[in-house]
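Dear support,

I submitted the protein below through the web form. The confirmation email said the job was done, but the results page showed an empty box. After a refresh the structure appeared. I'm attaching both so you can tell me whether what I see now is the final result or a partial one.
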Amino acid sequence: MAKGDAEGTGLAALVRSDRGLSPVARVAVYANAYFARIHDCLREDFGALARALGPAAYHDLVKTYLMTYPPTRPSLRHAGAQLVTHLSMEPFVSIFLRRCPYAADLARLEWALTEAFYAPDSPVLSREDLAAVAPEDWGALRFEASASLQVLSCAWPVHEVRERFDREDGASTWDPVPVLDAESTHLRVWRQGERVRYRAISALEREALRAVQAGEPFAAVCDRWVADLATADAASRAAALLAAWLTDGVLASCFPCNAGHRRS
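What the results page shows now:
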């Protein structure tokens, strides 16, 4: 509608009435359909959050979110990119946090699941690849993480709520909302094959994965642990972590830091 035409009378010249609907009412159908489409897409991306809030509160959350962060990209795949920021930064979202105090962390986990699903494919480092590394290269060996890997630090163990959501069918409702105790929690999110996975991890593993993502040699990562663990314990923990990463497909490749190019 043109500016200053609050009643939409100018639409009569562009849109015909039909079946008893005025031009304004006909255009409103499409406007409402657009909101409904985004509403449903966000519910697919943030299923546990929508269930925790309940239909009415979730509807209001989406409405306030889209007013603050309207979509700027053609694909609805990106529509939820700012929801964590919205829940973390906007003062008025406290009305949603009163019902679900861990909403921002739950949204953070669920958006990480979406990002992992759409991440580019990566090769998967195998035990055979690692066995082929020359002994003299092990001291400066670096790992490249899967493109889908995300490491999260949350104030709530929100993976427990998402696990409940994954176990239940789509017709389930939550009343009352699942109760969590605030607890510092670290999560690993990644895609293995066609399936997106998530897991609670220790602070030690979080530190190691972030160092890997930063490109540090694995030996340097292990050296940091020696200050807190006995040397034998640090070595066994490093071996256990590396074995778990290989099993889960978290690593894409390995290469010596002085190599002219990466190799697997």
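Response: this is the final, complete result; the empty box was a page-load delay. DSSP finds eleven helices and five strands in the chain.
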